[in-house]
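Dear H.,

Thanks for agreeing to be a second pair of eyes. The structure we're designing against is below in C-alpha coordinate form, covering all 257 positions.
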Protein backbone atom coordinates (compact mmCIF):
# COMPACT_ATOMS: atom_id res chain seq x y z
CA UNK A 1 0.00 0.00 0.00
CA UNK A 2 1.12 3.55 -0.64
CA UNK A 3 0.84 6.37 1.93
CA UNK A 4 -2.55 7.56 0.74
CA UNK A 5 -3.96 4.04 0.90
CA UNK A 6 -2.55 3.44 4.38
CA UNK A 7 -4.09 6.70 5.62
CA UNK A 8 -7.45 5.70 4.13
CA UNK A 9 -7.11 2.20 5.61
CA UNK A 10 -6.85 3.54 9.16
CA UNK A 11 -9.34 6.35 8.56
CA UNK A 12 -12.01 3.76 7.79
CA UNK A 13 -11.13 1.58 10.77
CA UNK A 14 -11.27 4.67 12.98
CA UNK A 15 -14.64 5.61 11.54
CA UNK A 16 -15.98 2.14 12.38
CA UNK A 17 -14.55 2.20 15.92
CA UNK A 18 -13.51 5.67 17.14
CA UNK A 19 -12.32 4.55 20.61
CA UNK A 20 -10.70 1.11 20.43
CA UNK A 21 -9.03 -0.47 23.43
CA UNK A 22 -7.89 -3.82 24.74
CA UNK A 23 -10.54 -6.40 25.60
CA UNK A 24 -8.56 -7.45 28.68
CA UNK A 25 -10.09 -6.22 31.93
CA UNK A 26 -7.74 -4.33 34.26
CA UNK A 27 -7.70 -1.54 36.84
CA UNK A 28 -4.19 -0.07 36.60
CA UNK A 29 -0.79 -0.68 34.96
CA UNK A 30 0.02 -3.57 37.31
CA UNK A 31 -3.20 -5.52 36.73
CA UNK A 32 -2.86 -4.83 33.00
CA UNK A 33 0.68 -6.23 33.05
CA UNK A 34 -0.52 -9.37 34.83
CA UNK A 35 -3.46 -9.80 32.45
CA UNK A 36 -1.24 -9.46 29.37
CA UNK A 37 1.26 -12.01 30.73
CA UNK A 38 -1.62 -14.42 31.37
CA UNK A 39 -3.05 -13.86 27.87
CA UNK A 40 -0.12 -15.50 26.05
CA UNK A 41 -1.55 -18.35 23.93
CA UNK A 42 -4.97 -17.76 25.49
CA UNK A 43 -8.03 -15.72 24.60
CA UNK A 44 -8.79 -12.41 26.31
CA UNK A 45 -12.21 -13.81 27.27
CA UNK A 46 -10.69 -16.77 29.13
CA UNK A 47 -8.23 -14.48 30.94
CA UNK A 48 -11.03 -12.13 32.04
CA UNK A 49 -13.01 -15.02 33.51
CA UNK A 50 -10.03 -15.93 35.70
CA UNK A 51 -8.86 -12.43 36.62
CA UNK A 52 -12.23 -10.95 37.64
CA UNK A 53 -12.29 -12.70 41.02
CA UNK A 54 -8.49 -12.56 41.29
CA UNK A 55 -8.29 -8.78 40.86
CA UNK A 56 -11.01 -8.27 43.46
CA UNK A 57 -8.54 -9.38 46.15
CA UNK A 58 -5.16 -8.81 44.48
CA UNK A 59 -4.36 -5.33 43.15
CA UNK A 60 -0.68 -4.79 43.93
CA UNK A 61 2.59 -6.73 43.59
CA UNK A 62 2.75 -7.02 47.39
CA UNK A 63 -0.69 -8.64 47.53
CA UNK A 64 0.26 -11.00 44.71
CA UNK A 65 3.40 -12.17 46.50
CA UNK A 66 1.37 -12.64 49.68
CA UNK A 67 -1.15 -14.73 47.72
CA UNK A 68 1.63 -17.08 46.70
CA UNK A 69 2.29 -19.24 43.67
CA UNK A 70 0.09 -22.16 44.73
CA UNK A 71 -3.05 -20.11 45.30
CA UNK A 72 -2.40 -18.09 42.18
CA UNK A 73 -2.07 -21.31 40.22
CA UNK A 74 -5.48 -22.43 41.50
CA UNK A 75 -6.99 -19.06 40.54
CA UNK A 76 -5.77 -19.23 36.92
CA UNK A 77 -5.92 -22.99 36.28
CA UNK A 78 -8.53 -22.50 33.53
CA UNK A 79 -5.92 -20.63 31.45
CA UNK A 80 -3.41 -22.47 29.29
CA UNK A 81 0.16 -22.82 30.63
CA UNK A 82 -1.06 -21.76 34.08
CA UNK A 83 1.87 -23.36 35.94
CA UNK A 84 4.50 -21.35 34.10
CA UNK A 85 2.39 -18.20 34.13
CA UNK A 86 1.82 -18.38 37.90
CA UNK A 87 5.55 -18.73 38.46
CA UNK A 88 6.28 -15.74 36.19
CA UNK A 89 3.63 -13.49 37.77
CA UNK A 90 4.98 -14.13 41.27
CA UNK A 91 8.56 -13.58 40.07
CA UNK A 92 7.79 -10.34 38.20
CA UNK A 93 5.86 -9.08 41.23
CA UNK A 94 8.90 -9.72 43.42
CA UNK A 95 11.10 -7.90 40.88
CA UNK A 96 8.74 -4.91 40.84
CA UNK A 97 8.90 -4.67 44.63
CA UNK A 98 12.67 -5.10 44.80
CA UNK A 99 13.79 -3.02 41.80
CA UNK A 100 10.98 -0.58 40.97
CA UNK A 101 9.30 0.37 44.22
CA UNK A 102 6.25 -1.73 43.37
CA UNK A 103 5.57 0.32 40.23
CA UNK A 104 5.41 -0.86 36.63
CA UNK A 105 8.37 0.64 34.71
CA UNK A 106 7.69 2.88 31.72
CA UNK A 107 10.39 1.76 29.32
CA UNK A 108 10.47 -1.26 27.05
CA UNK A 109 13.96 -2.19 28.18
CA UNK A 110 13.00 -2.31 31.86
CA UNK A 111 9.75 -4.14 31.18
CA UNK A 112 11.54 -6.83 29.20
CA UNK A 113 13.76 -7.64 32.17
CA UNK A 114 10.68 -8.88 34.08
CA UNK A 115 9.97 -12.65 34.03
CA UNK A 116 7.41 -13.62 31.38
CA UNK A 117 7.53 -10.21 29.67
CA UNK A 118 8.62 -10.07 26.04
CA UNK A 119 8.58 -7.31 23.47
CA UNK A 120 4.89 -7.72 22.59
CA UNK A 121 3.77 -7.63 26.24
CA UNK A 122 5.95 -4.59 26.89
CA UNK A 123 4.47 -2.80 23.88
CA UNK A 124 0.90 -3.51 25.02
CA UNK A 125 1.60 -2.11 28.49
CA UNK A 126 3.41 0.97 27.14
CA UNK A 127 0.57 1.70 24.73
CA UNK A 128 -2.48 0.89 26.83
CA UNK A 129 -1.30 1.94 30.29
CA UNK A 130 1.03 4.82 29.41
CA UNK A 131 -0.18 6.11 26.04
CA UNK A 132 3.00 5.35 24.11
CA UNK A 133 2.80 4.97 20.32
CA UNK A 134 3.92 1.34 20.22
CA UNK A 135 2.84 -1.53 17.96
CA UNK A 136 2.31 -4.85 19.72
CA UNK A 137 2.29 -7.40 16.92
CA UNK A 138 0.40 -10.58 17.79
CA UNK A 139 -0.86 -13.33 15.45
CA UNK A 140 -3.87 -11.22 14.41
CA UNK A 141 -1.79 -8.19 13.45
CA UNK A 142 0.83 -10.34 11.75
CA UNK A 143 -1.88 -11.96 9.61
CA UNK A 144 -3.67 -8.70 8.77
CA UNK A 145 -0.48 -6.87 7.84
CA UNK A 146 0.69 -9.66 5.54
CA UNK A 147 -2.69 -10.51 4.05
CA UNK A 148 -3.71 -6.94 3.24
CA UNK A 149 -0.26 -5.76 2.18
CA UNK A 150 -0.30 -3.06 4.89
CA UNK A 151 3.09 -4.03 6.37
CA UNK A 152 4.21 -7.45 5.15
CA UNK A 153 7.07 -9.16 6.96
CA UNK A 154 8.62 -12.56 7.62
CA UNK A 155 8.37 -12.24 11.41
CA UNK A 156 6.63 -10.10 14.03
CA UNK A 157 9.59 -7.78 14.55
CA UNK A 158 9.81 -7.02 10.84
CA UNK A 159 6.09 -6.23 10.76
CA UNK A 160 6.41 -4.03 13.86
CA UNK A 161 9.27 -2.01 12.38
CA UNK A 162 7.35 -1.53 9.13
CA UNK A 163 4.31 -0.31 11.06
CA UNK A 164 6.56 2.13 12.93
CA UNK A 165 7.49 3.72 9.60
CA UNK A 166 4.17 3.40 7.80
CA UNK A 167 1.38 4.36 10.24
CA UNK A 168 0.61 8.10 10.04
CA UNK A 169 -0.84 10.47 12.57
CA UNK A 170 -3.45 10.69 14.00
CA UNK A 171 -3.71 6.89 13.98
CA UNK A 172 -0.48 5.78 15.65
CA UNK A 173 -1.74 5.56 19.24
CA UNK A 174 -4.68 3.26 18.47
CA UNK A 175 -3.35 1.48 15.38
CA UNK A 176 -2.52 -1.82 17.07
CA UNK A 177 -5.98 -1.99 18.70
CA UNK A 178 -7.71 -1.45 15.36
CA UNK A 179 -5.58 -4.12 13.72
CA UNK A 180 -6.12 -6.67 16.50
CA UNK A 181 -9.89 -6.19 16.47
CA UNK A 182 -9.98 -6.28 12.67
CA UNK A 183 -8.08 -9.57 12.66
CA UNK A 184 -10.13 -11.04 15.48
CA UNK A 185 -13.60 -10.29 14.10
CA UNK A 186 -13.33 -9.67 10.34
CA UNK A 187 -10.00 -10.69 8.81
CA UNK A 188 -10.15 -14.10 10.50
CA UNK A 189 -7.52 -16.78 9.96
CA UNK A 190 -9.61 -19.56 8.41
CA UNK A 191 -12.39 -17.63 6.70
CA UNK A 192 -11.96 -13.84 6.43
CA UNK A 193 -15.33 -12.10 6.26
CA UNK A 194 -14.43 -9.99 3.23
CA UNK A 195 -18.06 -9.22 2.40
CA UNK A 196 -18.33 -6.93 5.44
CA UNK A 197 -14.78 -5.55 5.47
CA UNK A 198 -14.55 -1.73 5.42
CA UNK A 199 -11.18 -1.82 3.63
CA UNK A 200 -11.93 -4.53 1.07
CA UNK A 201 -10.95 -2.40 -1.93
CA UNK A 202 -7.56 -1.53 -0.35
CA UNK A 203 -6.71 -5.12 0.55
CA UNK A 204 -4.47 -7.26 -1.66
CA UNK A 205 -5.90 -10.56 -0.45
CA UNK A 206 -7.31 -12.73 -3.24
CA UNK A 207 -9.68 -14.38 -3.74
CA UNK A 208 -12.13 -12.39 -1.61
CA UNK A 209 -14.45 -14.50 0.51
CA UNK A 210 -18.02 -14.43 -0.78
CA UNK A 211 -21.02 -13.77 1.49
CA UNK A 212 -22.54 -16.94 3.02
CA UNK A 213 -25.53 -17.00 0.67
CA UNK A 214 -23.34 -16.65 -2.41
CA UNK A 215 -20.97 -19.37 -1.15
CA UNK A 216 -23.97 -21.70 -0.79
CA UNK A 217 -25.05 -21.00 -4.37
CA UNK A 218 -21.50 -21.49 -5.62
CA UNK A 219 -21.20 -24.85 -3.84
CA UNK A 220 -24.52 -26.00 -5.36
CA UNK A 221 -23.35 -24.97 -8.82
CA UNK A 222 -20.05 -26.81 -8.38
CA UNK A 223 -21.88 -29.92 -7.19
CA UNK A 224 -24.18 -29.88 -10.23
CA UNK A 225 -21.25 -29.41 -12.58
CA UNK A 226 -19.36 -32.27 -10.95
CA UNK A 227 -22.40 -34.54 -11.23
CA UNK A 228 -22.81 -33.71 -14.92
CA UNK A 229 -19.10 -34.33 -15.45
CA UNK A 230 -19.30 -37.79 -13.86
CA UNK A 231 -22.27 -38.65 -16.07
CA UNK A 232 -20.42 -37.52 -19.19
CA UNK A 233 -17.36 -39.53 -18.15
CA UNK A 234 -19.41 -42.72 -17.81
CA UNK A 235 -20.97 -42.19 -21.26
CA UNK A 236 -17.58 -41.49 -22.80
CA UNK A 237 -16.27 -44.81 -21.52
CA UNK A 238 -18.97 -46.72 -23.38
CA UNK A 239 -21.38 -47.00 -20.50
CA UNK A 240 -24.54 -46.03 -22.30
CA UNK A 241 -27.33 -44.63 -20.19
CA UNK A 242 -30.11 -47.11 -19.58
CA UNK A 243 -33.21 -46.61 -21.70
CA UNK A 244 -36.63 -48.05 -21.07
CA UNK A 245 -37.52 -51.05 -23.29
CA UNK A 246 -39.80 -50.10 -26.17
CA UNK A 247 -41.98 -53.23 -25.63
CA UNK A 248 -42.00 -53.17 -21.84
CA UNK A 249 -45.58 -51.93 -21.70
CA UNK A 250 -47.00 -54.46 -24.26
CA UNK A 251 -49.49 -56.91 -22.71
CA UNK A 252 -48.44 -60.58 -22.59
CA UNK A 253 -50.75 -63.21 -24.23
CA UNK A 254 -52.94 -65.12 -21.78
CA UNK A 255 -53.02 -68.42 -23.82
CA UNK A 256 -51.30 -70.15 -26.70
CA UNK A 257 -52.76 -69.70 -30.20
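And this is the sequence the design step returned. I haven't edited it by hand at all.
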Amino acid sequence: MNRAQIFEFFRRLAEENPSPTTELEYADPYTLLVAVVLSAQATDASVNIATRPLFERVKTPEQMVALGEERLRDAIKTIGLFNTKAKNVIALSEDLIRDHGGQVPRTREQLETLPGVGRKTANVVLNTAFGEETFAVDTHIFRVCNRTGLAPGKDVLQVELKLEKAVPQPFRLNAHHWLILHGRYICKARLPECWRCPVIDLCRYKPKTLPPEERTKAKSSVARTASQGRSATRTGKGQKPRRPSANRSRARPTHLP
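Two observations from my side: The chain has a mean pLDDT of 90. DSSP finds twelve helices and no strands in the chain.

Warmly,
E.
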